Amino acid sequence: MKYLPLIAASFRRRPMDPILSFLSTAIAFLLAGLTLGFARVLPHGDDGTMAAAAGAIALLGFAMILFLTGNALAQSVRARRAEFAVMRALGFSTAAIIALVWAEVLLPCLLGAIAGLVLTELVALGLSLVLPPVMVLPRPFTPPLLWGEGMAITALLALAAAAPTALRLARLDVAAALAGR
């Protein structure tokens, strides 16, 4: 909780980075939720091709999260290198700075995942109102396992996106960063 003001300050400093992470995660989870939800509803054979296709589309969505989040994080940290050097000079440990960076990545990604899954349910609800009564969509539309697995995958993707940046911050030369080199 004591790092919350620092996270909020970083979001104000570069507001497009968390917005990009939030939107990419929400879109990826919307895509994954709709794909996996319709894979449960639509008729398919016993060969498992529908499930494999749904899984592949969901995996592509999660890969999109990883690359967009990693790119936004790398740009954000590069622009704030002097700020991290000041934090190190003030006595913040390397682990605390890395935890701060991971929290900056994790928060918009988890919120985006929740928003994407809620949006998936709203789209399914809207579709169930439009579709004929013969075609019934299950409640909940997204597989319940996707909520738990999705949050865990999002946390792991945030950790993977933050790892290269965290390694760079661990080797940060405070004097050089403060000098602008």
Please report which band the strand proportion falls in: under 5%, 5-15%, 15-25%, 25-35%, 35-45% or over 45%. Answer: under 5%
Please estimate the helix content. over 70%
Please state the CA-atom Rg, rounded to the nearest Å.
20 Å
The total domain count is 1
Summarize the structure.
The chain has helices spanning 4-13, 16-41, 49-79, 81-90, 94-130, 144-170, 174-179. With 181 residues, the chain is mostly helical. The chain is elongated and about 70 Å long.
Q: Can you walk through the features of this model?
A:
The protein is mainly alpha-helical. Helix content is 81%, strand content 0%. The radius of gyration is 20 Å and the shape is elongated. The chain has seven helices and no strands. It has one domain.
List keywords for this structure.
elongated; 181 residues; mainly alpha; 0% strand; 81% helix; single chain; 7 helices
